[in-house]
Amino acid sequence: MAIDMLGAGLTSQRARDRLIRQLAELGIRDPAVLDAIRQVPRHLFVEEALAHRAYENIALPIGYRQTVSQPFIVARMTEALLEGGAVSTVLEVGTGSGYQAAVLAHLVDRVFSVERIRALSRSARELLTRLRINNVSLLHGDGAQGWPARAPFDGILLTAAPREVPHELLTQLAPGGRLVAPVEGVDGQQQLVRYTHTAEAFVRDLLDTVCFVPMLSGAEQ
Ligand code: SAH
Questions:
Q1: What CATH number corresponds to the domain at position 163?
Q2: How many domains does the chain have?
Q3: C-alpha 61: how far from its chain's center?
Q4: Is the pTM of this model over 0.85?
Q5: What separation in Å is there between the alpha carbon of 3 and the centre of ligand 1?
Q6: Ligand 1 contact, 142 CB (< 6 A)
Q7: Which of 81, 92, 180, 215 to mutate to test the pocket of ligand 1 (most atoms within 8 A of CB)?
Q8: Cα–Cα distance for residue pair 206/146, rounded to 1 Å
């Protein structure tokens, strides 16, 4: 293959379109979600040495022993969060590279995202600014506390797996809102669960079996 001076090559529009076709074949139906994934340059969010694999449907390292989920899981979680009612504000727990936040930024009015590793939060902020994505607010802290000053949220997304969804997060969910999270199961398997805040209760449904990094307590300095 000729050297591509513009850095297109495997991160080209063709590679992105191929990924979108795969996601559609895997069952992602929401055209807005597919379009958001087509637009966000995932190769800028992953470790540079693996940027050429950014449009494959695989999880990739983002530094600090963390990973960004495979695009199918990002799409699936985003779709599960959005279906069933208008979503204007979303809280994400686990900013990581900022990729999921960037995808959400294309779909909702305002994204708030909390990350416990300061350096990840900082580089996510730099990248989002560079991409001129200006409806995402980031906070360095323990996501188990949510972001009380900005609550309630129409949607809450956890991208690290707790043993149980912290109660504090459910209290920050607006009526009608949905929380999507990977939760550690009894047999070491994680389940993707969705809680819907209805008039009577929090209704819980199971979506998929998944594999996320664990949610840790407290913020790192
Ligand atoms: N959404 C990210 C994926 C991040 S991986 C992306 O698109 O790149 C999960 C992230 O959750 C890691 O960065 C990890 O540091 C963070 N995390 C784990 N426990 C946390 C907690 N209690 N509060 C905030 N972030 C947490």
A1: 3.40.50.150
A2: 1
A3: 14
A4: yes
A5: 35
A6: yes
A7: 215
A8: 22
What are 135-161's pLDDT values in tens digits? Answer: 999 999 999 999 999 999 999 999 999
pLDDT per residue as tens digits for the range 154-180: 999 999 999 999 999 999 999 999 999
Give me the domain span that covers residue 93.
Answer: 71-210
Q: Give the count of beta carbons closer than 10 Å to the beta carbon of residue 126.
A: 10
HSE (CB half, 13 Å, CA atoms) of 70?
A: 13
Residues annotated as part of the active site: 69
Report if residue 150 sits inside a domain: yes
Closest CA to 207 of 72, 86, 40, 68: 72
Strand partners, 203: 196
In a domain, 8, yes or no: no
Q: Which residues contact 77 (CB under 8 A, 6 or more apart)?
A: 69, 100, 157, 159, 180, 192
**Domain assignment present for 107:** yes
